[in-house]
Design a protein that fits this description.
This protein is an all-alpha fold. It is built from 13 helices and no strands.
């Protein structure tokens, strides 16, 4: 099982509070195990938390994530909906249902879930980022960029937003913005060859020859065997 990263949708686990102490302990252990990719441990801890019969939203969010990771999407949806029955303001449940809807092509329904999560907490960065992806799917590129900018106002170190912003900027031929976004990525993750290639493309379009060369060199340092990194201006090697 692979958890979303990069420009993928973000699904989140929940941490239980205000429930039976042992149920909360097991649910929080389930969330940590999910985040660490320890699925057998997560499953056992989630099952234990539900044994206490506590109808807590976060318990059902975590159960839904397990089911989703196992490919049991209908059951996962039912678990996230159960979370909303327990707490209509369950942020992770809204976000995760929205992510499932967007993957299924139900863009409007996905946006409703992301908007509801952001109504509850405007700083909920996962829903903000997923909303940007949904607006991009609608070809509302200006709105997608606006949402990514808001996400970065919440957390300037949120790398998926910089990557998506850079890719959108390249598509829009906003090369200065693309250079800014990929420059932020390469500064934070110097080993990201894709970010260096994005920066090289943006700087090439801008006619900034030396900056483009430097980006190609950065790409080579990050991935010495990557053929695309060996391409320099003028076609030389």
């Amino acid at each position: 099982m692979s958890w979303p990263s990069g420009c993928g949708l973000l699904l989140l686990a929940g941490c239980a509070t205000g429930v039976h102490p042992e149920a909360a302990r097991a649910s929080n252990a389930c969330a940590r195990a999910l985040q660490g990719g320890q699925l057998a441990e997560a499953s056992a801890q989630c099952d234990l938390s539900l044994e206490y019969g506590t109808d807590d939203a976060n318990l059902w969010v975590n159960r839904g994530l397990l089911l989703h990771g196992d490919g049991r999407t209908a059951e996962a949806r039912a678990a996230f909906e159960r979370a909303l029955d327990a707490n209509p303001d369950a942020l992770q449940a809204h976000n995760n249902l929205g992510a499932m809807d967007l993957r299924a092509g139900a863009v409007e329904r996905a946006i409703e879930h992301f908007d509801e999560a952001l109504r509850i907490d405007p700083r909920f960065i996962a829903a903000r980022y997923n909303l940007a992806l949904a607006r991009e799917r609608q070809a509302s590129l200006a709105e997608a960029r606006r949402q990514l900018r808001i996400a970065l106002a919440v957390d300037a170190g949120f790398l998926p937003a910089w990557r998506s912003l850079g890719l959108l900027a390249l598509r829009d031929h906003d090369d200065a913005l693309a250079a800014e976004a990929f420059g932020q990525l390469t500064a934070r993750v110097p080993g990201d060859a894709e970010a260096w290639l994005g920066l090289a493309e943006a700087e090439t379009r801008r006619g900034r020859v030396e900056a483009a060369r430097a980006a190609f060199l950065g790409c080579l340092r990050a991935a010495p065997g990557r053929e695309a990194c060996r391409v320099t201006l003028g076609g030389s090697r």
